[in-house]
């Protein structure tokens, strides 16, 4: 009689919790899973390449705002709009008023106006020689250019052709390019270089750190490969999003930064649990199933927490910030797929190469266990000191001042920044960043009085209108009246309020508020670049309470779903808010106030653009909850087994803290590598996130979590209480 030697699934493989059954299924079908995963990865790589090239260059805009409506009206009725870029023209000898230089300047202005994609071009020589378009020493003059179209069209199609051609200059003129569109055109490739260069440093360093922690080359390599899988799948998913939404090119940077970190984190927890199950005497199939059941559940809750924190960005009506929500959710999905589906099949196949060479008995009374007991003996002392230290570190946050980003986010050697520096230092006003007041029903006779009042405002250099130009409460010239009349005739006009260079550098939003506070004699809409910035900032800041409420509420529900406790999510929220306070304290102290600017090589402006801090808020909160979920899952598991809160905290910390510290260190390294970036936005993201992760993975998890759980005692688990079944 023949003996059937084919392995049959055990009863445990077909019963038990769903994740355990999934683990057994992945073990049984490991070859099929790996083959399908490889095929999926190849397809994802193709889609990812297409997604990277399909990302767009988003602008900071507030759709539907007053400035947005004003800009549309300006284009529709008057055939003009805010300049997209400028050319700084320098006389190689003499001044810009010399007849030969003037003739060359007029010719160059006309030439630019004839270029494909250019709607209009005006200059010092063609607009009546206003003082606002000439430098104080008369060596420089400006040509202002309007290029209609979205950011992709302007920055990717027109400027790459126009700028090299025009900046060749002439025998009499030297020409340099500047303006907002040119600044951001230079920002994108520099930011991409920063991230690629950082990743090239991070990969080998992460491998070394993982090897030092795992002591096996394969156990160090597999999490890094999982990070790559997370990045590729994340980008591939974005290719689907691109079918119905615009994604900013900066979302690619977040995908690279988070993909590697989360991929490593999630795989580390699964591998660590696989090692524990093996050390407890389980065979490989049971060890993999146990890792999927316990670590897999933790990883799924963690991913849901991170994705939920980023999803609140959908509450903001800005494509730029929504891009990061799409990217973050996509890369989390990629990390979960790598850790919960692919990794178990890998462990079932080559899991032996990831086990330590020498099996040491598990120690429940090691350093972290002793530290937890020490802290819980004096919870008020240790918790109070730790809280006081973190509050001191967070204190600079109280001085946060929101502003707007400008060319100083670029390194000093960037050509557009050099152009803007000359304009900032040599020109009395910022003609290209004028505030535009559109008056659809105004009669020309009503304009002079209103313009005179506006010209007296602090920070206003000049007001140009259909009735002439005004400065310091008096008429100073005829200007260019035809610019301010509707196309095809009819009623209505608009006014150009030119800010001084000092006002624009100090606080353009405050100047916009001053202009809006003047009672007009007719209905006006306020537009122009400063108004766009003011409306964008106001829209972001106004929706900040909603973002915070959604973020706290959603993550509370996720933690409640994991712990069935009302107290633990409240405690976790308070600790994470404290962690965020330290992060914001650091970025205010460094990037707003300028401390360490010499070391990091950036130029502080005294304010922070609200977009990046809000992005950091959502990312950091999600990652902080990430480690909270990891630690709480171990503590809860021990509490379900023993019913002793203090023992559960000490044992959970002993088993979870080393891994959390290692994972946090690697993730902090991933972000800290961006401190060497050339773009200040990238530096801010890297430094702030590294600080948040390090504080969260050390002081908060090692000191404040044990302190608060000791003080809460049995209330930690209210209203659920102790579980009736063991988690092991």
TrEMBL record:
User: PANTHER family this protein is in?
Assistant: MEMBRANE PROTEIN MJ1562-RELATED, MEMBRANE PROTEIN SCO6666-RELATED
Compartments reported by the entry:
Cell membrane
Task: Indicate where this protein is primarily found.
Answer: membrane
Q: Which Gene3D superfamilies match?
A: Multidrug efflux transporter AcrB transmembrane domain
Q: How does it sit in the membrane?
A: Multi-pass membrane protein
Return any one Pfam family short name: MMPL
Q: Which organism is it from?
A: Nonomuraea zeae
Put simply, this protein is called: MMPL family transporter
């Amino acid at each position: 009689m023949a003996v059937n030697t084919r392995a049959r699934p055990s009863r445990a493989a077909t019963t038990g919790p769903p994740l355990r059954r999934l683990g057994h299924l992945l073990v049984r079908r490991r070859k099929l899973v790996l083959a399908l995963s490889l095929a999926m990865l190849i397809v994802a790589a193709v889609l990812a390449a297409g997604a990277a090239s399909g990302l767009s260059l988003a602008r900071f805009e507030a759709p539907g705002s007053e400035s947005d409506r004003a800009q549309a009206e300006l284009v529709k009725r008057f055939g003009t709009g805010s300049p997209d870029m400028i050319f700084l023209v320098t006389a190689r000898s003499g001044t810009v008023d010399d007849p030969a230089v003037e003739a060359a300047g007029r010719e160059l202005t006309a030439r630019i106006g004839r270029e494909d994609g250019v709607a209009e071009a005006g200059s010092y020589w063609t607009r009546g020689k206003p003082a606002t378009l000439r430098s104080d020493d008369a060596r420089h003059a400006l040509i202002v250019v309007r290029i209609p179209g979205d950011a992709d069209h302007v920055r990717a199609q027109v400027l790459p052709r126009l700028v090299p051609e025009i900046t060749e200059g002439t025998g009499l003129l030297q020409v340099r390019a500047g303006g907002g569109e040119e600044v951001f055109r230079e920002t994108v490739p520099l930011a991409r270089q920063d991230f690629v260069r950082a990743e090239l440093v991070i990969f080998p360093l992460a491998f070394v750190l993982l090897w030092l922690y795992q002591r096996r080359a394969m156990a160090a390599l597999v999490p890094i490969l999982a990070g790559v899988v997370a990045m590729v799948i994340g980008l591939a998913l974005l290719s689907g999003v691109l079918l119905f939404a615009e994604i900013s090119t900066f979302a690619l940077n977040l995908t690279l930064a988070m993909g590697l970190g989360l991929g490593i984190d999630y795989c580390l927890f699964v591998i660590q649990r696989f090692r524990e199950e093996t050390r407890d005497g389980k065979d490989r199939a049971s060890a993999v199933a146990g890792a999927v059941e316990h670590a897999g559940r933790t990883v799924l809750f963690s991913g849901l927490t991170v994705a939920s924190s980023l999803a609140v960005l959908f509450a903001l009506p800005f494509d730029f910030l929504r891009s990061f929500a799409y990217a973050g959710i996509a890369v989390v999905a990629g990390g979960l797929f790598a850790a919960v589906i692919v990794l178990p099949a890998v462990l079932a196949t080559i899991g032996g190469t990831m086990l330590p060479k020498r099996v040491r008995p598990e120690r429940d009374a090691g350093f972290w266990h002793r530290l937890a007991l020490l802290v819980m003996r004096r919870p008020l002392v240790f918790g109070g000191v730790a809280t006081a230290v973190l509050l001191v570190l967070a204190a600079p946050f109280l001085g946060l001042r929101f502003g707007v980003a400008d060319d100083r986010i670029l390194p000093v050697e960037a050509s557009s920044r050099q152009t803007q520096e000359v304009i900032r230092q040599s020109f009395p006003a910022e003609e290209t960043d004028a505030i535009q007041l559109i008056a659809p029903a105004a009669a020309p006779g009503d304009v002079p009085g209103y313009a005179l009042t506006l010209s007296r405002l602090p920070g206003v250099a000049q007001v140009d209108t259909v009735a002439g130009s005004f400065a310091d409460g008096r008429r100073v010239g005829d200007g260019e009246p035809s610019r301010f009349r509707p196309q095809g005739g009819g009623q209505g006009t608009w006014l150009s309020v030119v800010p001084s260079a000092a006002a624009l550098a100090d606080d353009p939003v405050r100047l916009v508020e001053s202009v809006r506070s003047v009672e007009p004699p007719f209905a006006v809409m306020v537009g122009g670049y400063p108004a766009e910035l003011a409306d964008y900032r106001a829209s972001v800041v106004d929706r900040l309470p909603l973002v915070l409420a959604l973020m706290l509420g959603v993550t509370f529900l996720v933690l409640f779903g994991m712990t069935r406790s009302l107290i633990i999510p409240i405690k976790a929220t308070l600790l994470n808010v404290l962690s965020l306070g330290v992060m914001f304290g650091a970025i205010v102290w460094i990037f707003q106030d300028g401390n360490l600017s010499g070391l990091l090589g950036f130029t502080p402006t005294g304010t922070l653009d609200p977009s990046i801090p809000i992005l950091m808020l959502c990312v950091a909160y999600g990652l902080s909850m990430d480690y909270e979920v990891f630690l709480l899952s171990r503590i809860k598991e021990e509490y379900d087994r023993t019913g002793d809160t203090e023992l559960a905290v000490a044992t959970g910390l002993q088993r979870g803290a080393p891994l959390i510290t290692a994972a946090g260190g690697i993730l902090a390294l991933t972000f800290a590598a961006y401190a060497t970036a050339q773009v200040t936005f990238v530096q801010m993201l890297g430094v702030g996130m590294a600080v948040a992760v390090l504080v969260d993975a050390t002081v908060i998890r090692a000191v404040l979590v044990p302190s608060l759980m000791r003080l809460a005692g049995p209330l930690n688990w209210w209203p659920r209480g102790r579980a009736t079944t063991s988690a092991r």
